[in-house]
Amino acid sequence: MSLTGSTWPRVTAFIVALSAASATAATPAGAPPLHAAVRAAHALGTHPGGLYTKSQIDFVMAQVHSGQQPWAAANDQLMAAANRLRSWQPHTIALYVTPGFYKGAAAFFAATNGITHDADAAYVNAVAYRLTGDGSYADCTVRILRAWAHDNTGVATTDDSQLSMAELGTGFIESAELLTGYAGWSEADRTSFRNWIRTVYLKQSADPIKDRTNNWGEWGTFGAVTADYYLDDAAGFADETARLQRHIDQALSPDGHMPDEVSRGESGLWYTYFALAPMTAAARVIENGGGPNLFQWSSPSGKRIKVALDVLLAGAQDPHNWPPGVTPKGPNPTKDWWPYDLFEAMSDEYGNKQYDAYAAQRRPIMNTGHHHAWTFPTLLKAPPNAM
């Protein structure tokens, strides 16, 4: 039986209480704003870094080399894809234009398939290079990044164009992080790619949407902070830290659901996942970059990421746990990677056994083909403080 208006508050009260065990109090009264402290004292980390630090990658390599599970199985999954995609040729476009998905799915996928597959191939091969040291994988990534930096000069402002570039272009930037130190990527090509990030990705895609209040804003913020970390832009990194704090405070309700996403009706569960994936990925980049730990942060109005994750998990496990009056479409447990990828990543962040058990149903998880928040959550599982 679905929850009634009178029973829903009791369910959410339980979720809030469960989340409180792993959350800290809000910023003390009288303390300077967190973003001011970040702006004053923040120092960007080393490269590779951002979503995954070098220490976390080294931890993963040790698990793979010693045959530990689930890393060994996930590594087999990655290498099968990398060997299949190592000769991939890019499919660039000068002006990236994406029609609205709800105006016609066929036209949407026709427009996005090229960059989707390019970003997948670049990221898969970059991870393979980082874990093996085999330059042939890196060469594939270089080929793709060089082509997009040279050929792509614009992103349209119509329909889903900016959102699509924001969510897919992060895959290019994450790939570039992983090529740190690779001699086969010339300085001229690196400079060209950094220029593409500034003039195309940030200026025409991530920046224009990052203040939106729904999932668009989360993707814009994740894209921007990922780019800022790669570019060693400390001021930009501090600005995105403050922006993510505002998003947490504004996008979440006190009971943990996301009103802008829940309003999508039967698709509300998926859209909540689609907003929390970049929100949590941005929080990880900030944490790894020496900024505040927003996973444990409570906003001025008491909003916490952990509460929202618990609401999503409850709905994914049983749609009757979703807000009353809505029966959402949940994930297909034999086909879909969402939201298993998110909870795989968050199981280590929070040390949460419920998240771990849920994700374990679909391991090893590698979520390519749509966006690049938690693409390799099983393979790149590592403690937040891995040394």
Describe it.
- The chain has 387 residues and is mainly α.
- It has a single domain, classed as Chondroitin AC/alginate lyase (Glycosyltransferase, Alpha/alpha barrel).
- It has helices at residues 8-20, 34-41, 54-65, 71-85, 105-132, 135-151, 161-178, 187-209, 215-231, 234-251, 259-262, 268-288, 305-317, 340-350, 353-360, and strands at residues 95-96, 154-155.
- The longest helix has 28 residues, at 105-132.
Record the SSE blueprint:
Layout: H1 8-20, H2 34-41, H3 54-65, H4 71-85, E1 95-96, H5 105-132, H6 135-151, E2 154-155, H7 161-178, H8 187-209, H9 215-231, H10 234-251, H11 259-262, H12 268-288, H13 305-317, H14 340-350, H15 353-360
Parallel strand pairs: 1-2
